[in-house]
Amino acid sequence: MFKAILIEKDEAGYRASVQNLDDAQLPEVPIGGVTVKVSHSTLNYKDGLALTGKSPVVRKFPMVPGIDLVGTVEASAHADYKVGDAVVLNGWGVGETHWGGLAQKARLHGDWLVPLPSAFTPAQAMAVGTAGYTAMLCVLALERHGVKPSDGEILVTGAAGGVGSVAITLLAKLGYTVVAVTGRAQEAEYLKTLGATEVLDRAAFSNPGKPLAKERWAGAVDSVGSHTLANICASLKYRGVVAACGLAGGFDLPTTVMPFILRGVTLAGVDSVMCPRPDRLLAWQRLGQDLDLTKLGLITHQITLAEAIPTAQALLDGQVRGRVVVDVNT
Length: 330
Hints:
This protein is of the alpha/beta class and 330 residues long.
């Protein structure tokens, strides 16, 4: 038996609760299955949507949510993993179509796993989680498109959230000048501690703007979308780049072609869910190299498995700073 959060949907409605489940209930993996004894998971924005039912994230019921997990291999039919190996999982539809990490045990396809990098403890790996791994993918996208620290300021939206907090920390350590955007003025000192040189009010970006604005940003990491992303595109410098990875402000993009054809800007989409394994390995290797672990503690707080359910709504309401680590065994 193991404890897990189980989401159910039936005539009685949509609900999430902590339950004791039998190992026999774990989903089967036809080829290359790995059973993991989970130590920690996380709460991401998508997990908040799943736990509250605010968006149709969950595609099959019943479902154990949790798009992240870290733990040790308990049984393996995959050539790359043996009993006792420490592993991490991010994405791959886990917590949406396949039982996920908000549980003490998970059965997964071995190809979805990566070895736990030696730079991190299990709790630290989940402090990074999908949010931090996505932030690293965004930084890699900026680098791939040639954005250098000497090119100018980098804007980070949703700055007090998980992606934003890690993105600021990474970019600052790499020598970039980072400007943070947040709707939470009380978090300004926190964001400056992470490395932001300036903090701007999100209201300046969240309303309809001009097709082209004054050039300012050499690059940006955006987890908001909608008018915020449109305004970023309009104010990027010539050949500037924005790595877009989220839709907290909406999935629409009310912009024009003008920034793209008159300033040659690049809108680089970043997906963490189905990201190929080589890119995942590179992202985790760079996180171990470039993330200031002394600041990871500032970004993170830890909760129990049962606390994940009420915390999900607070996360969606913008009341949660940085990263939430879930100790599934407490």
